[in-house]
Amino acid sequence: MEILAAVGNTSLVPLRRLVPPDSADVLVKLEWENPTGSMKDRMAVAVIGRAAADGRLRPGDTVVEYTGGSTGTSLAFVCAARGYPIRIVTSDAFSQEKRDHMAALGAELTLVPSEGGLTTRQLILDMIEAARELSREPHTYWTDQLRNHDSIAGYHPLGEEIWTQTGGRVDAFVHCVGTAATSRGVATVLKRHRREVRIAVVEPAESAVLSGGAAGPHKIEGVGIGDTPPLWEPALVDEIVPVSTAEAKEMTRRLAREEGLFAGTSSGANVVAAIRIARQLGPGKTVVTLMCDSGLKYLSTDVYRRG
């Protein structure tokens, strides 16, 4: 079996201590079981595989992308397995571990400075423009994650896994929005199986653009780009749940201490929102959300750093 075949088929486990009484069950999908410790391996396999299959990506071409880190790490992983060079545009707004991981997998990094380590709309725009410049060089393929529809298909298997693992007993799916590819891919599959499945998406309260608010700086890595993502499909979404950076960080720490689940900040935001939905639905219902990536990617950040 080649390494790319190890992507997917991750475990689904219940939260035992964090969910209040008289709430629905909350199940979390352990996406850190993917080879790079992130759900983004799913989209990377789809994006690179489809581009290579139809000739957009040719042997010897260099892959280019802008990323907070998990997407870049996953793309670097697939490129290493498939033999493509890769150039990544990222920033000091994202954890050192992610940058080190990308470099370890052979990625050449270009760093765009942030405003005090915060994710802002301007930072995302600057990163996109830097990637656009790199993509103008000959023999490059820009995966352009915010606009790449191939990434949506990468999450269809995730939706099928959730449906199968719950035996079709899933009442709500909750997930943060970055590119919107994950929630769109999973929602497409779940609503195909059962139209009544409730889809709740999560965004930073400090940058609640999808809820009609203003863009603002926040510290939930990988989500809340400060704009409506091009892949956003509101017809598939039943509810938008704003969660603050402080709430997300505290829940991330509680997941580790009280559930033994060592995850990143967006996973904490997912669980904050999933518990809100679980309270609304009540006993006898099932809410599913994602542990998007491993806490090992955040040890240098203030989520886990002591002192």
List the helices and strands and how they pair.
Elements: E1 12-14, E2 25-30, H1 40-54, E3 62-66, H2 70-82, E4 86-91, H3 96-104, E5 108-112, H4 121-135, E6 140-142, H5 150-154, H6 156-165, E7 172-176, H7 181-193, E8 198-204, E9 239-243, H8 245-259, H9 265-281, E10 286-291
Parallel strand pairs: 2-10, 3-4, 3-6, 4-5, 7-8, 7-10, 8-9
Antiparallel strand pairs: 1-2
Helix pairs in contact: 1-2, 2-3, 6-7, 8-9
List its salient traits.
307 residues, alpha/beta, Rossmann fold, six-stranded mixed beta sheet, four-stranded parallel beta sheet, globular
What proportion strand? 15-25%
Structural class: alpha/beta
Mean pLDDT rating: 96
Strand order of the largest sheet: 1-2-10-7-8-9
Q: Give the CATH level 1 class of the largest domain.
A: Alpha Beta
Can you characterise this structure?
By secondary structure, the chain is of the alpha/beta class. It folds into two domains: 3-33 and 155-298, Rossmann fold, CATH 3.40.50.1100; 40-142, Rossmann fold. The chain contains nine helices and ten strands. It has helices spanning 40-54, 70-82, 96-104, 121-135, 150-154, 156-165, 181-193, 245-259, 265-281, and strands at residues 12-14, 25-30, 62-66, 86-91, 108-112, 140-142, 172-176, 198-204, 239-243, 286-291. The protein starts with 11 loop residues before the first strand and ends in a 16-residue tail after the last strand. The model has no long low-confidence stretch (mean pLDDT 96).
